[in-house]
């Protein structure tokens, strides 16, 4: 198991990264069958061809407004970045934007861009080959006291209503970045380290009605599910499009904690959450440390050193 539902996030914000061909070879040798990239890159797409790796392809936040304004631009984007490669590359989802918040310039353009890209996919006859979604994170929720009480922020409800309706209609999942690390180190929260690392004992468990939460990952993911259920008339699946733990660069960031989190996560997601007890498609963040990542803490989530050695044993190869 593992290779069926675990993928990796492959970012390119580094100066000393292996070549894309070496990265694809590394994935194949470690039985990594799913990948997320954050923007189109021809050097990555070529070796992906016929690799058997299933891809989430991102639309960068800075391109969203243009794709929302002109359907012709969206069609060209799909032609250049999807149709061009679809004979050899196995696409799963197009992620239109990554953790776009109400304060971001692209916020109001995400849904129109999703619609334009989906219309282009349909017009090109690709609707059975790839679905369109967007990647949110838990900052788009209001205060998360208990999963059952979770709602989207007041300034994001209309936005999420449109997106959820679209996803239900098209049969696509919602992509969600779920990072217990950031919830744990946020000083306004009181989550224990053990609760964040899947190592909690009963005194640290959190009870929500008849459901028992033994870890922060489930707590956060079920919070998103509950917020969605308050807006959706039908069930909507969620794919965890990012999760991980840094090995340095912040509180509780060390190799021991990163190994514990990722090892236990891989085992855990096979059984799902208390609210949704089914296997969760999950993408580990990230393939490598990235020394040019915009935020300092984001530089140190790598699962592999840039010389392609695993940063810690016990995770790869996936079974």
TrEMBL record:
Keyword Hydrolase carried by entry: yes
Gene3D superfamilies reported for this sequence: Glycosidases
UniProt-listed PROSITE patterns: GLYCOSYL_HYDROL_F17 (PS00587)
Pfam families per the UniProt record, alphabetical: Glyco_hydro_17
GO MF terms held by the record: hydrolase activity, hydrolyzing O-glycosyl compounds
Origin superkingdom: Eukaryota
This protein's record includes keyword Translocase: no
Any one of the GO BP annotations: carbohydrate metabolic process
Keywords: Glycosidase, Hydrolase
Family as reported in the entry's similarity comment: Belongs to the glycosyl hydrolase 17 family.
Protein name (Swiss-Prot/TrEMBL): Glucan endo-1,3-beta-D-glucosidase
């Amino acid at each position: 198991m593992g290779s069926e539902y675990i993928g990796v996030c492959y970012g390119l914000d580094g100066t000393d990264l292996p070549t894309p061909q070496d990265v694809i070879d590394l994935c194949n040798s470690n039985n990594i069958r799913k990948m997320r990239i954050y923007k189109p890159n021809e050097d990555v797409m070529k070796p992906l061809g016929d690799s058997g790796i299933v891809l989430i392809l991102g639309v960068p936040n800075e391109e969203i407004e243009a794709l929302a304004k002109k359907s012709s631009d969206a069609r060209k984007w799909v032609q250049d970045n999807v149709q061009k490669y679809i004979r050899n590359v196995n696409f799963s989802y197009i992620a239109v934007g990554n953790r776009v918040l109400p304060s971001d310039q692209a916020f109001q353009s995400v849904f129109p861009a999703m619609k334009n890209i989906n219309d282009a996919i349909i017009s090109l006859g690709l609707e059975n080959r790839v679905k369109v979604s967007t990647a949110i994170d838990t900052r788009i929720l209001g205060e998360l006291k208990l999963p059952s009480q979770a709602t989207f922020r007041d300034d994001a409800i209309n936005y999420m209503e449109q997106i959820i309706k679209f996803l239900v209609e098209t049969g696509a999942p919602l992509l969600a970045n779920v990072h217990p690390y950031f919830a744990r180190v946020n000083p306004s929260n009181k989550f224990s380290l053990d609760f964040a690392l899947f190592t909690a004992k009963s005194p640290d468990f959190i009870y929500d009605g008849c459901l028992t939460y033994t870890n922060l990952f489930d707590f956060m993911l079920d919070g998103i599910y509950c917020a969605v259920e308050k807006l959706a008339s039908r069930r909507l699946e969620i794919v965890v499009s990012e999760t991980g733990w840094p090995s340095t660069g912040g509180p509780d960031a060390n190799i021991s904690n990163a190994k514990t989190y990722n090892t236990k996560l891989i085992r855990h997601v096979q059984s799902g959450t208390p609210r949704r007890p089914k296997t969760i498609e999950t993408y580990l963040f990230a393939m490598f440390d990235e020394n040019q990542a915009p935020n300092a803490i984001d530089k140190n989530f790598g699962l592999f050193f840039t010389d392609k050695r695993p940063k810690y044993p016990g995770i790869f190869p996936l079974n």
